[in-house]
Design brief:
There is one protein chain. With about 240 residues, the protein is mainly beta. It has a single domain, classed as Porin, CATH 2.40.160. The longest helix has 16 residues. This is DUF6089 domain-containing protein. Keywords: Signal.
Length: about 240
């Protein structure tokens, strides 16, 4: 590599580092599950979801993002909008923790500098690891319920992967804080968040085995910005 190439690489690296602005904060909102038990509404928060988020803004349009979110996914056939599910009467709750990495893309330029007023819609995508409880229904529990309760039982904890996709809007509320609101769906690589397809095939299985489960996080983020001031187009 000659001197000219080294100089170009140095200038690009310096330009990138001068544009760094970091964000750290929290997420609070609701969660809901989409699958073989309960309501078929796609966005229907029914349980608290909380977490933390970290962002590295590499330009006015892009930001790398890492997050950890915890919630209890739950659903009941008593809330279903179809007669078959309502009559079946199953229910479950599943404690989950999601760790995700991805990228935000801002539709408009979003400058975190202290003298700008910025607001923009954005989309987010990436990959996630999901810790969840492997649920099941035994035969008595599934058919008649134990003392009238048709709740899923917990077998063990498991890990799977998920694909998060979100749409949101964010705005600076002062020189250091950014407030955002988003709805994010997650496609998972398991069909057993609800206990419908346990790993042990001696237990009860039901529902659509060709479709894996989904879940949704809807809520707000509040982040604090720090690091070098944005200088995406300095002269």
């Amino acid at each position: 590599m000659n001197f000219r190439n080294l100089a170009i690489l140095f200038m690009l690296t310096t330009s990138l580092s001068s544009a760094q602005m970091f964000e750290i904060g929290g997420f609070v909102g609701g969660s809901n599950y989409i699958g073989d038990v309960g309501s078929s509404w796609y966005i229907n928060p029914n349980s608290l979801a909380v977490g933390g988020v970290f962002k590295w803004n590499v330009s006015e349009r892009y930001a790398y993002r890492a997050s950890v979110t915890a919630s209890q996914l739950r659903a009941s056939d008593k809330d279903a909008d179809t007669y078959g599910r309502f009559k079946r009467g199953l229910n479950f709750s599943n404690n989950v923790i999601e760790g995700a990495l991805g990228m935000e893309f801002n539709f408009w330029e979003f400058d975190l500098g202290p003298f700008s007023r910025s607001v923009t819609p954005y989309i987010y995508g990436g990959g996630a690891v999901l810790w969840y409880e492997n649920l099941y229904y035994d035969e008595l529990n599934f058919q008649n319920g134990n003392n009238g309760d048709k709740s899923a039982l917990v077998d063990k904890n498991k890990i799977t992967f998920a694909i998060p996709m979100a749409l949101g809007v964010k705005a600076k509320i002062n020189t250091r804080f950014v407030l955002g609101a988003e709805v994010g769906v997650r496609y998972t690589f398991t069909d057993n968040l609800d206990g419908s397809y346990p790993s042990d095939d001696t237990k009860v299985r039901f529902g659509n085995v060709l479709s894996d489960d989904w879940y949704v996080f809807s809520g707000i983020t509040l982040t604090y910005t720090f690091g070098k001031e944005s200088c995406y187009s300095c002269f």
